[in-house]
Specification:
The structure is a homodimer. The first copy, chain A, is mostly helical. Chain A has ten helices and no strands. The longest helix of chain A has 23 residues. Chain A binds a DNA duplex through helix 3. Chains A, B: InterPro entries: Homeodomain-like_sf, HTH-type_TetR-like_transc_reg, HTH_TetR, Tet_transcr_reg_TetR-rel_C_sf, TetR_C_Proteobacteria.
Chain lengths: 230, 230
DNA sequence: ATGGAACTGAACCCATGGGTACAATCAAGG
DNA sequence: CCTTGATTGTACCCATGGGTTCAGTTCCAT
């Protein structure tokens, strides 16, 4: 076993502590001593499990990316039900995704990815391959099912998924000051609603826009109050 | 004058060299010696113009952000003409914006912003205030004029601008591997086209989608060939 | 020509931090 | 009990790099 002294798995604690410190300081500014302290471990122990500061970073990033991806994939679950209230379901999924997107760890992961992408090109492979790409694929699959059921007017599911995510997360960057400012949940809900409205304008079933009927003004296109969420 | 030896403005050369080096190495990894070499200047000269490495970074970022913003605002110029072929104009503007968005310096600026945002919170103010925010505002202004002229069905210009930019740049991140992989110009043109199509589905003049008419399959919604661009 | 301001090159000081060595310590298994 | 192996503090080596000093140099202004 890799555990002798302190009970829990050493390696796991080190990786989590490492990500925390890297997120707080950035790669170059983070020192291994602080990582060790964060993980409740002595410095040589860190080097005992991970050879380098670089490999420490790589493994910490990979673990964090895996967590983030799992959470996001789970957020798509409501779309498995193809018979429910579609706008409400989309709004729910969008809202969940926005919450995860503004999560502290997810923001830190994005920041670290952006900052160290030049020094660690291989990390991009790890994270992006098991990150936004897989999410887009999963979402595209769900949307394809809905299109096949006649509930959406989609010819290219990948495009639809990409544009849904763009409409969802695009307006966020400005509002959240690139992940540094917290944003309250009702704002997230509003952002999800406008994104879903736009998405349904593009891919929704026949809209038949009568003169004066501006969909974007209606809280919920098909009359549901949509007040109960969460 | 601040120029004695080498003719050109010292400070300017230093700031440009600094941004180049920071973009190449990141803030922490960049050393002032290399900045001096890049600017063709001795190390004490750098400290003669900028007190700190930190202030050097700040000023370099500000200058770079200003350049990027100016280029982007200029890309909106075609929208000043409110009478032209609207989809073609939007495509043109979108294409220009995508080119600027994938520009090496712009990508480096975004990376540096993301990476050092925790250590330099004030840089965010400088860059974002004179960056995407101003761009969104300018675009919203143009779109409002077009809406007033009856060419777009927009009630909230800010929202429309935000969503246009989201549809435009959102799909880019995945395709360009976060700004590390170059992308060819025809792909950019295609991305601009799909974004414009989606945008017009949301905000375009009355669509009257007949059964079987999928706008996203048509290269140009109103019949123009749209082959001549640039 | 000459004083002065900016520039240069090189050496220097010193703090930070990656990585290692080592003796002491603790837990598990025989 | 005793061996084995991981862990722990601590001290250490050494490379990197921010920032400064200084003597000499170049250029401009008067």
């Amino acid at each position: 076993m890799a555990t002798t002294r302190g009970g829990g798995d050493r390696r796991q604690a080190i990786l989590e502590g490492a990500f925390t410190v890297f997120a707080r300081r950035g790669y170059a500014q983070a020192c291994v001593k602080e990582v060790a302290a964060e993980a409740g471990v002595a410095k040589p122990t860190v080097y005992n499990h991970l050879n380098d500061k670089a490999t420490l970073f790589r493994h910490a990033m990979q673990a964090a990316a895996q967590n983030v991806l799992d959470e996001r994939l789970a957020a798509l679950d409501p779309l498995k039900d193809a018979d429910g209230d579609l706008p409400a379901t989309l709004h729910d999924v969008g809202h969940r995704l926005l919450r995860l997107h503004t999560d502290e760890r997810a923001c830190a992961l994005r920041r670290l990815l952006y900052s160290e992408i030049t020094h660690f090109p291989d990390i991009l492979e790890i994270v992006t391959e098991s990150g936004p790409h897989r999410l887009t694929q999963a979402l595209a699959d769900r949307l394809a099912r809905l299109a096949l059921a006649g509930r959406l007017r989609i010819t290219d599911p990948d495009l639809a998924a990409e544009q849904f995510l763009s409409l969802l997360t695009g307006p966020l960057e400005a509002r959240t000051r690139m992940g540094t400012r917290p944003i309250d949940d009702t704002t997230l809900s509003d952002l999800a609603r406008t994104a879903v409205n736009a998405f349904l304008q593009i891919f929704g079933p026949q809209v038949t826009t009568e003169a004066g009927t501006d969909m974007r003004k209606v809280a919920n296109p098909d009359g549901h109050p949509l007040t109960v969420e969460e």
